Amino acid sequence: MRDLKREILTMVEKDLKEIEIALADNLNPYLDLVSDVAGHILFAGGKRLRPLLMVLSARICGYKGDYDKIFSTTFEYLHAATLLHDDLVDGAKLRRGKPVANSIWGNSTAVLVGDFLLARGLSIAAATGKLKVIKVIAGVTESMSQGEIHQLMRKGALDLTEAEYMEIIRRKTAVLFEGACRISAFIANASKKEEKAVSGYGYNMGMAFQMADDVKGSFWTSAASGKPEAGDIRKRKKTLPLVWALQHASEPDASRLREIYAAEATAPMSQPEVDEVLAILEGCGAHAEALGRARRYRDEALADLDALPIDPERRAEMRFLLESVIAI
Amino acid sequence: MRDLKREILTMVEKDLKEIEIALADNLNPYLDLVSDVAGHILFAGGKRLRPLLMVLSARICGYKGDYDKIFSTTFEYLHAATLLHDDLVDGAKLRRGKPVANSIWGNSTAVLVGDFLLARGLSIAAATGKLKVIKVIAGVTESMSQGEIHQLMRKGALDLTEAEYMEIIRRKTAVLFEGACRISAFIANASKKEEKAVSGYGYNMGMAFQMADDVKGSFWTSAASGKPEAGDIRKRKKTLPLVWALQHASEPDASRLREIYAAEATAPMSQPEVDEVLAILEGCGAHAEALGRARRYRDEALADLDALPIDPERRAEMRFLLESVIAI
After folding, report:
1. Class of domain B4-326
2. At what angle do helices B286-306 and B192-219 cross, to 10 degrees?
């Protein structure tokens, strides 16, 4: 009997190996320092989700060429650039257990290497020879920077609305996933219908990914999520469960949340407060609501796949990717 | 009698007005904060040298369309992005007499608005509909970020060689000037020969511009240069006259320079030390050498113009631009 899951895993592992090689081969800096800093962020155990999404998506759109792995590096370089700039914005100390680049090489070098990675991503996008690819990349970069700025502007705001939250994650996360899929359709010369379906898949996956991340960052054990337990709460992050609870919990609960979250943002939240927040988020239904929304976007992504005229095995690959990434 | 200089000035003033309008019209952010921060750096009395260079260069290549001013904003957006990121790198307090953006809005916002401006520049470049335009923009951005990083790496180094200095200013400055001219040839559908000549003009102008800037920053009065007198010396910048003197002055002079420049870089240089440095740079011929080099690049740019099969009035415009910009 065929073990489809095993076959998919083997194929994805091969893709990931080739993506890894392409990431190292296409950086091309002339300064060793740029290799060091870019390598620090690029080769720190990232899941290569964005390039893998592009590679699988190109395959279901019928791409037969040899350049998909190279083109896919655009998305990892772009992502790495935003991580370098984000770590500076967030004032984080560690990323994936390693000191952040700006703490080792300084803010200036981190900013400039981020700029270099943006430019490399762009050069590789230009190598596709397709102008519409570039337009998507430029639009994604504009969108991501504005999403980041919007989030930063409203960092301490307890009146952040759900609509604003959705707009921020759309710009910060979903448009890049959507762009990776749309571009895969372009390089595969797919039909308009396929382009629309895979782009929708990418967009909905990006939205689900961010919301699932919010759920994991508040409610999952460290062993299950691979992140610090209740880390988003401890850091007073404005995640979907919190935003929803502030607007929908009973007035005493909402008022207590505002009180806890209004405290000096630099001091970590105490354990009793974390427990209290968790109890409120569970009690008012914020956990269930966030989980439900993430699942609805995941299901939308599955529906987009169903709209694609592809063979069942290709569909199984995309379903597998979605389910392993979202995993809620 | 015709007053050609007057006519050129009138035409350039009209170009500059249109560039100014295009810069405001094509920013298109969705957040007011982005308008504020980008506007702070974009509308602070910049000379619009890079877009003007593209507009004039497109005209001599025979461009007849209406989009030159819009396309030219790419170069000002790109330049403004690097200024936002540079001010953070340099730790400067003021730019053109105004507080730097990162001192008003914080490092994070300055970095992210810089990213937005890079992306806007790219979107506008993509609007030319020409893939080779994008390739030039991507290459220029890679080059500029690496030039900045190289400069930053060697900031305190007294053994910076002339070859390194040349490589840094080529990457940081000359490739953008060259790119503005090359792209003007692309959008004008100019011949290979014209492309080569205007690109050479841009490159040599960029090199001359940076060297002239070095001369002004060390030796010109504040009234003549519009900058703080001996400002580059006071800030211990590694400019061409200094780099040259460290390698070519007599051993006692070079040793004294090393002593003064090795002092704690955060403390401003004292006036007696500034005077001593000036005397050494004049005495060993470093001033004359830097001036001579800047003029040689300017003359190379003029020779590139002479290679262009254009009518004398167009040539007079480009010569006028070169001479007003370099002015040494």
Report:
1. mainly alpha
2. 160
